Here is the input.
Amino acid sequence: MRANKLALLSAACFVKVRSLLKDFEREGRFREIRLIVNTLMKNPLTLASIIILGALIFISVLAPWIALYPIYESNIGKKYKPPSLEHPFGTDHLGRDIFSRVVFGARSSLIAGITIVAISVAIGWPLGIVAGYRGGKIDTLIMRVTDMFLAFPSLVLALIIAFTLGPSLINSMIAVSVTWWPWYTRLARADTVSLRERAFIEASKAMGLTDLQIMLRHILPNTAAPIIVQATMDLGTAILLAAGLGFLGLGAQPPEPEWGLMVSEGRPVILSAWWVSVFPGLFIFITAAAFNLLGDGLREALDPRLRRVRGA
Amino acid sequence: MKPLLVVENLKVHFDTYDGVVKALDGVTFDVYEGETFGLVGETGCGKTVTVLSIMRLLPENSRVVSGRIMLRGENLLEKSEDEMAKLRGRKISMIFQDPSASLNPVFTVGEQITRVIMIHQQLSKEKARERAIEAFKLVALPEPEKILKAYPHELSGGMQQRVMIAMALSTDPDLLIADEPTSLLDVTIQAQILKLLQEIKNRRKLTILLITHNMGIVAEYCDRVGVMYAGTIVERGPVKQILEKPYHPYTKGLLAAIPKPESRKKRLHVIEGFIPDLINRPRGCSFHPRCPYAKEVCREKEPVAEEIEPGRYVMCHLIEEVVVA
Amino acid sequence: MSGFRQYLVKRLILALVVVIGMSMITFFLARVAPSDPAALWVGLHARPEQVEKARIELGLDKPLYIQYFIYIRDLVSGSWGISYRTRRPVIEDIMNYLPASIELAVAGLLIASVVGIPLGVVAASKKDTKVDHACRTFGVLTLSTPSFWMGLTLQLIFARILGILPLQGRLSPDIAEMNPIQRITGFYLVDSLLTGNFVAFQDALLHIILPSITLAAYSTGLSLRMTRSTMIEVLRERYIVAAKAFGMPKNVIMFYYALKNAIIPTLTVLGISFAWTLTGVFLVEVVFNWPGLGTYTWRAILAVDYPVIVAVTVISTLIIVVTNLILDLIQAYLDPRVKL
Here is the structure.
């Protein structure tokens, strides 16, 4: 019985996806996507960031095979060894190989960043659309709540939440997400308000589409571009914040190889064993920079005004 | 009559992500002193690009590939940016289609017009203010002192356009370029503005280059006209003659498309097809895909403008046959 | 200008709502944390009766909403509770530590604006040239730097390897002893100048360099990027082309005409910069052992010091709300399109 249902469900999904793809093709979306990708590739900085991000994903997925040493085993005899051929990034206070730990740390950071942004977007974007489209009391209510969260220095609120829930990687991610969604609400709402006045919305209403249908079919896709750009850039900042919480001891706990945590572990010996802090921090920097560059490049590629100038 | 402005074989290209857009493919026309010359054509045919080229205000991704723009014998394309800045607003002025977008929203119109006046004439602020009021009176703006203190968004569309005209004429230019100055205004206001321009032109020694997509405006207010299609001028000459006896198939189509209430036909006349892709221009005559008379030669060779009557130029291979038809 | 007054009142009420809402959220969150404040107050080795007594004293036996009302009443009347950790009135502690944080934040914000905004203008005016790309890359790099790592690295380079700047703190211990700064405003740089204490001034200046640069980094990148896109938007507007058509020379357009249009969104940039600066103050204070509100709050969080946590929350919310309010009012005043 179950197998039948599953088969039916997957068949339905398959059909839906296929019709969606056909729609895309008809509306020339594939060509648009190819154009965007082309534009992205032309910018050397964006290209570099894509390569770096690809490498990071590669590293985090294949961490168990790339790491040189076990990351949890302590080896006090080898503590605080400077970078060498054996240990490219040196060892930490427990004799663990920093290179291997950095490699594994990529996982937590990438997951943290993506989760934070995904949650924030998932909450903020629809809220913003609803607020912008419905207007009136719903709008006021949503925006007041949004303002409340926006007024808060995000780190402080994230700290308090992280502390309330107990320090761990997951809780720190939740904490940051809670402070982040307001930005997307604002962004989506502003976009929606300007879209709402456009003629094709009126036309859709005249054709009898319900509010929900209009919001899903028309407003959602049209507000996607700025949200995507912002989300990509925010991935960088999200990783910074997650690492910051880790540094303060409110994120992943030892002996996890989280980059922010590793930087704080190296802090007592920064003047003598600088490699313990510098290498994990360097990777935080590179990852955040790659996301920011990508976001910048996306913004240029997705900006409709920059793309074509037909003769006036 | 001497020509004030002569545009010779102007070719302008734009570099875009999709390719090179050949926006102007050899535009040639001249404007005589004291007349109103109309440049008419559909959206996208290159009218605005032409006048932006004259003003040298094209965006960065543009290239003037060839041609000359002669203002009283001097080639504007060879002038430096500083020299052009001195000409703009002084010898050649331009007014734009959307007056509300062309005025800076955070300054009063008084501040804007006095600044323009002070840039071009070494006048004190008070003197500039007086000239501004004169200019406002010239364009029949009521209560000029009050308007000086108004912000653009506080004025109606018609008044905004009058302010722009005042700004453009405050320095007594030789040539006024008007890029569809009334397209966004109500029909009644349109007539007012265009009549105003005509009056001013007759009073002072002003030459007007009027861009429009409306043949009716051309018929009413222009002395000579150039019909533009896909970056070239397909027909050019005195308005009366062109209206009575159009030669080029496109011109014929444009005129036929004007709805006439007394006509008994139920359907509007339509020119079949779409304007061509300016990146991959069709070979030969750019109009041939839509031309009901198109022959083999039209698909192969580009036509050259021929003077079939004194002062009348047409770009078409089949002039004799078209005349007969 | 009754329209303006109406606007002001409306915004004030909204601001109040925001602050109240935030204080509520923090208060309840802090209470929900898994720790017994009464036990903390009395200490680790207390007997159960002492804990119980403390609980009644601290009012923790009453229902939650009553506790909140008591707290708000106290807040408004000026008694902000006693810190569980330091045993001093919270207000006293805050007054002690706040100036240090403000000094640092202002320094950071100043650097960020002075560097970021003009670079943004330059980048916009020379869009798509090498200058533009260089500026943008610089902006991205500063946006991506983890402040704690940058702080540590700067300490390493300048304090240890080069030895030209102090490692941490606001003042060298020997200067603090020999040339103590008289406290007028609490801002070392200001007070030392006011009292002619140039030795201490120089020392304080040296101490603030590294932390303020670290703090400024993120906001610099942010300001640069936002100013650049604002200027580009403005420069694309029709009225700029029209101004050129009227013969306005380019430098007049850039520095007078377009600038006025760009000031309004630039204020928004400043507001956001400020908010992020407040966020960053935290981490920077920890790294540099800066005796400010950030360090104080961090210790409070680790010690589950409720009164402090809630008080600091309310204060920082207040600061941000007030700053945003002021910025909004300035914007409304400057923009003739806003109907007042």
Notes: The CA atoms of residues 304 and 310 of chain A lie 12 Å apart. Chain A touches chain B through nine residues (CB under 8 Å).
